């Protein structure tokens, strides 16, 4: 029996005028994974459904049951998310920082020109990045593991948030700085955001926006593999 939900996902993609590559990028998955969803070989995850609803404004009842209108608003508003692009820079030297040496993310963002990096990363054709740090913890495993590197672009305006994307955050917890990488989603609690982990063993958590000390958009990641 054909998977009608998968057919509706394909229909929405075509209605938005997106290729499988473009649509998969918006969902944060590979083209082959999207193809399996559209053909009914694999189910649509709740995380990807949230992206369709929150970022592309697709009606959740239409996704699940085919009821109501496809979009909750004008299609043009949905395309603002999928059409966003970053201009790649042919060559750049991205500074790699040691969090212990900089005493946290906030001092790094405030005084980065005067902080000496431990090294520089040279990767061609990346979007503009302000810096890079090592990952600590397993909240984004298996996408990111402890010891991997994330390259980031500092953000100063909450209005520029793309809901569902991955961010580097500094959070105030009882006067201590907690640095983490999480997906940011809209929260039902006023004045809060929802932090979502890739690792299913880590529960989603609502955090007051006023507790966010620093914020950066994760532009790229580097997997560190060691051979023993």
Largest sheet: 9 strands, mixed
Form type: globular
Beta-strand percent range:
25-35%
pLDDT under 50 segments (min length 5)? none
Structural class comes to alpha+beta
The number of helices is 8
Order of helices and strands: HHHHHHEEHHEEEEEEEEE
End-to-end gap: 48 Å
Oligomer: single chain
Radius of gyration: 19 Å
Mean pLDDT: 84
Give, in spatial order, the strands making up the sheet with the most strands: 3-2-5-6-11-7-8-9-10
Q: Percent range for helical residues?
A: 25-40%
What's the total number of strands? 11
In words, what does this structure look like?
This protein has 228 residues and is an alpha+beta fold. It is 27% helix and 28% strand. It contains 8 helices and 11 strands. It has a 9-stranded mixed sheet with strand order 3-2-5-6-11-7-8-9-10. A hairpin with a 5-residue loop joins strand 8 and strand 9. The longest helix has 12 residues. The mean pLDDT is 84.
